[in-house]
Design goal:
Blueprint: H1 14-29, H2 31-35, E1 36-42, E2 48-54, E3 58-60, E4 66-73, H3 77-84, E5 87-94, E6 99-109, H4 112-121, H5 124-132, H6 142-156, E7 168-173, E8 177-182, E9 190-196, E10 203-208
Antiparallel strand pairs: 1-2, 1-5, 3-4, 4-7, 5-6, 6-7, 6-8, 8-9, 9-10
The protein binds flavin mononucleotide.
């Protein structure tokens, strides 16, 4: 293979590259599979934990920096850890394309307006579930959970509006580093690292050994 085939045609803008790869992943494996990402967080003492969440698009923070949006319960383990240690990481794995993207950086709480807009777009059942489920708390039985759903349904009526609970919302991970990984023959994979330039403007790109 020529060197050209291995430059992956990555531009200097990692968000642009991410969107390009995401579109290809969606085309090959569908929206839900393509947007599932691992979110790694760590407690203040440095103990890590990881779980899958769904990528819900990008937006800019109040300083104009672009980031990755995700949503969940603010009292869950992930949110508790993000509150005490804002450093986090994301991993996308698209096996059919032989691709991985790693993203690292601090998180910020998304605005109430962002959280309201996404919450309102969810199916009614998911909105009721967000009220009924004390995410990541210990519960005794599934029946207990279902009883909570029935209670919440009574509270909001069969077709009443279901507002966003105060303890539910979103996080924005603002990347400082991206790594794009493309599987290659004989394990000679291609890896490109993008680091936010020290000036805050633009990105520095490097090739990493596989
Ligand atoms: C495909 C998939 C998508 C998921 N999406 C989300 C999500 O967007 N937000 C969320 O809070 N949990 C999501 N979950 C559940 C999480 O993996 C996890 O169980 C939950 O967030 C509690 O994690 P925590 O106790 O570490 O906070 C998803 C799980 C799977 C398998």
């Amino acid at each position: 293979m020529t060197t050209d085939m291995h430059n992956l045609n990555l531009s200097m803008d990692p968000f642009e590259n991410f969107q390009h790869w995401l579109a290809e992943a969606k085309a090959s494996m569908g929206e839900e599979m393509a947007t599932a990402m691992t979110l790694a967080t760590a407690s203040k003492s440095g103990r890590p934990s990881a779980r899958i969440v769904l990528f819900k698009g990008t937006c800019r923070d109040p300083k104009g920096l672009e980031g990755f949006k995700l949503f969940g319960n603010y009292e869950s383990q992930k949110s508790r850890e993000l509150l005490e240690n804002t450093q986090a990481a994301l991993v996308f794995f698209w096996p059919l394309l032989g691709r991985q993207i790693r993203v690292e950086g601090p998180v910020e709480r998304l605005s109430d307006q962002e959280a309201d807009a996404y919450f309102a777009s969810r199916p009614r059942g998911s909105r009721l579930g967000a009220w009924a489920s004390p995410q990541s708390q210990k519960i005794n039985t599934r029946d207990e959970l279902l009883a909570r759903v029935v209670e919440v349904e009574k509270r909001f009526g069969s077709d009443g509006e279901v507002p966003r609970p105060d303890n539910w919302g979103g996080w924005l991970l603002v990347p400082e580093r991206f790594e794009f990984w493309q599987a290659g023959e004989y394990r000679l994979h291609d890896r490109f690292l993008f680091e936010r330039a020290p000036t805050g403007e633009g990105w520095q790109r490097s090739r990493l050994a596989p």
